From TrEMBL:
Keywords of this entry: DNA-binding, Plasmid, Transcription, Transcription regulation
Residue ranges annotated for the HTH gntR-type domain, each copy included: 13-81
Ranges that cross the membrane: none
Taxonomic superkingdom: Bacteria
Keyword Cell wall biogenesis/degradation attached: no
Full protein name: Phosphonate metabolism transcriptional regulator PhnF
PANTHER family in UniProt: MANNOSYL-D-GLYCERATE TRANSPORT/METABOLISM SYSTEM REPRESSOR MNGR-RELATED (PTHR44846), MANNOSYL-D-GLYCERATE TRANSPORT_METABOLISM SYSTEM REPRESSOR MNGR-RELATED (PTHR44846:SF1)
Keyword Repressor set for record: no
Gene3D superfamilies xrefs: Chorismate lyase-like, Winged helix-like DNA-binding domain superfamily/Winged helix DNA-binding domain
Amino acid sequence: MLNETSHELMNDLPRWRQIELMILKEIDAGAFRVGEKLPGENILAPHFGVTRTTVRRALAELQNKGVLRIERGRGAFVERRIQYGLGAESSFMANLRDASLVPAAEILAKFEVSASTDIANRLQIPVGEPVLVFDTVGKASGLTISVSRHHLPSRLFPGALERISSFSCITEVYRLFGYENTRRAHCHIEARLPSSEEARRLQQPRTEPILEVQSLKTIDQTPIDYSVARFSAARVSVYFDN
């Protein structure tokens, strides 16, 4: 709920701007988590002592800046874009913890396949060699932000399908098998519209773009994971951090 002192607004700014800044301050202070719904206009207007039209203007400005997502008939939700670094040593867990968010991953499927020519080339293994596949949904403090597919050489992760039932970050799998200092050796980013299944998994409209990030993780220059992650572009901004 909004702080009781939030009605003490700055008189030298337009009312809608004052309200915009006060709501932003509350979000930054942790009063509302990413994905959480704000109080309705009928609550915010009397709280700030203004009309619903003024509140609506403030919320619209926050939406334009990527802080909120307004859904017709449902209300306004905190949607501050997560800054996701793609450095050589960065990971899903580290990125979200740096943003004071709780990382979590749900395993949708796990299975073993024979390496196709493309996967074999990326992992530098013979065509047909067994590869472990993990399909996951990544979440930040409960908000779905990505769907990913990881390809791991089976010989480097013996018995992984039986041993692993859950994890909050694929880095936990690496460490379970003794791979502590992994590095991102390759990264390719492409923006596109999602498939119906991707949009459903990401809980977003098909008309909103996604960011597809193809990465290769290595340990001592040996490839251990070729992944394809699809991020909701409305919720995540990616950048290179060397």
